[in-house]
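testing teh design pipeline on a random one, pls ignore if ur not involved
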């Protein structure tokens, strides 16, 4: 029984990894259950044993991305060698790295999922709670939600402008990193 459960878990892992790779390479349109199965090296029917449809698979990929981000922010929060402002900047930089380096995945993370919406909402909530704890260290509990929302929406805009090519040095005389530094400096005062 254990071997069967381990095999199922390994297959699920391979399917999620294959779907994430296809998403990175060509966006949601590149992700088909057939191609995911082929990329994962399993039978054509194997993906359907784990995910009822493509949307459910993409939802699982997005939830996993939120979980990873939450784990990173949690570890960052526990780092005694960083100041709260450094933790804040590093956490936001991590989100920017996902958005700029894996824009299709980032989009999936912020979409209303068609698969199991609660899975993504729970994963995002855990990650955002970790982020809010860092914001609280910087600005205090009374202002944490307002500043947290301001920071998240600002970084979301920075990512969008960067990915679309609208945030360029020639036009704005600044970079995404400089904008992030400015945000953190303003909030951490």
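output:
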């Amino acid at each position: 029984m254990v071997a069967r459960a381990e095999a199922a878990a390994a297959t699920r892992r391979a399917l999620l990894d294959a779907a994430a790779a296809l998403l990175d390479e060509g966006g949601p349109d590149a992700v088909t259950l057939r191609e995911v199965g082929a990329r994962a090296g399993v039978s054509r029917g194997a993906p359907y044993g784990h995910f009822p449809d493509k949307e459910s698979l993409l939802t699982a990929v997005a939830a996993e991305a939120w979980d990873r981000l939450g784990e990173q922010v949690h570890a960052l929060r526990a780092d005694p060698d960083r100041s709260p402002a450094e933790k804040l900047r590093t956490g936001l930089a991590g989100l920017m790295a996902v958005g700029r380096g894996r824009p299709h995945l980032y989009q999936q993370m912020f979409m209303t999922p068609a698969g199991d919406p609660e899975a993504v909402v729970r994963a995002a909530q855990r990650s955002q709670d970790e982020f809010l704890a860092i914001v609280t260290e910087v600005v205090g509990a009374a202002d944490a939600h307002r500043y947290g929302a301001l920071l998240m929406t600002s970084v979301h805009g920075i990512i969008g402008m960067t990915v679309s090519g609208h945030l360029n040095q020639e036009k704005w005389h600044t970079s995404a990193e400089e904008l992030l530094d400015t945000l953190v400096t303003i909030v951490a005062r």
